[in-house]
Amino acid sequence: MRTLIILSTLFLVFGSYAQSLDSLGIDNRPILNNYEVKLLNSLLEEQRDTFDFKNKKVAFITGSSGTKIISKSEYFNNSVIPWIEKDSSPQISMYQLTYEEKSKSGGYDILVLSWEKLFTDKRRKKTVEILEGGIKASCQSSKRGEFHP
User: Which string of DSSP letters, residue by residue, matches 80-143?
Assistant: First the structure.
């Protein structure tokens, strides 16, 4: 029953976002636009508790063990939009950073992950260290905006 309710909600959400898909991932700023905020708040509703993506600095992670930091536009274009267009649910999760991790990472509030199978505390610590070193330089070092630590 719970699955049916979740799927029904997702289909309703996806239908309402279909007209705004062209507003997702239009830049690579770590702060989300209103469409991105609404979509991630909706998709991660059960995981986020009271967390709200509005005005939060977000890092996007992918790879089976969460080793690739990717740009926001790549994240939405490859990990979210294709699934929404198929009326399916993208596989995403989130990790809210602690105050200490936020300070160390350069002000990032949260990690949004896609298609990871295993994201360990060790990988989380390494990701925060990479963010601390400057994600912009890391993303520019690869054609696709990936960084492989």
Answer: IHHHHHTT----EEEEEPPHHHHHHHTS--EEEEES-S---HHHHHHHHHHHHHHHHHHHHTST
DSSP state of 30: S
Please choose, from the candidates 66, 57, 71, 90, the residue with its C-alpha nearest in 3D space to the C-alpha of residue 28: 71
Is 70's pLDDT higher than 80?
A: yes
* pTM beyond cutoff 0.90: no
Q: Which long-range contacts (CB under 8 A, 24 or more apart) does 128-136 make?
A: 128/97, 128/101, 128/104, 129/104, 130/69, 131/59, 131/69, 131/105, 131/106, 132/104, 132/105, 132/106, 134/106, 135/30, 135/59, 135/69, 135/106
31, containing H or E segment = none
d(CA 103, CA 2): 38
Work out the percent of the chain whose per-residue pLDDT is above 90.
60
SS3 56: coil
